[in-house]
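Sequence in, structure out.
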Amino acid sequence: MAFSLLANVLRYSGDLDGALQSVSEARSLAESIRFPDEPQQALTLYPILLRQGWILGEDEDSIGLGRPAEAVEPLRKAFDMVDRQAAKDPDDAAMRDRVSTVGRLLGDNLRYLDPAQALAVYDRALGRVREVKDNVRARREEALLLARSSYVLDSLRRGGEAGARIDSALDLLRATGDYPAAKIELGESTDAVIRALGDHAAEAGRPERAMEVYRDLLEKAMASKPNPGADLRQANDLSQIYRALARLYRKAGERGAAESLDARRVELWRGWNVRLPGNPLVQRRLSASLGESR
């Protein structure tokens, strides 16, 4: 567990290679243990496999190495393990929460490789989290799964279903009191659902609506007073908002607005390049930002 926790710290500090080495050591040790039963094995292995998947996984929306094909193996193992445990106890809300978390991450990686399989995983996780009644956290997780699965449905040309899932996600956030909101925390469920709303509008050929959604999201995210200069996760989330909105402006011919957002994104990653010189993740983000700003 010490190696696993160290991997988490290293990942959030931008040392993805060090994080992978640490979590791999954690997994090797954990898999050498003879556990008294499967529930104890699941409780020990789950966080390690989850972290390994996070570190290896897609890096568009998260801090990862961008190797989704490699991330699938530990995530699939963790998903199957906790899903089996959830099936044995209909009242185990904690295990269902684990199914939801790892299922979302597994789906996020599979959607680049096998969209149909990704949808099946999202739906399995949705089924489990819906078994938890009268629980605010479960409803937020459900909203997040609905939002993430909308991207797969759009890629499969099932836009109507994608839109319906986003509408359901927004209804869930209204019920939990998270939406509408004057402030939106970067990286939280509301942030992800609103981004899915904007991306779906763009995919459906409604750029004006997409820009409206993203402008509102950016305003409310900044109202939460994030600290992207010191928090790598917040920097990554804010960079994705800048990128999405700049692309929308560029397509609409609003070059000045796009260039302004590009400049903010470049400035953000230049700051991190000073803070973490030579860091591969920062270098990828900075290179991408400079490339799109030209």
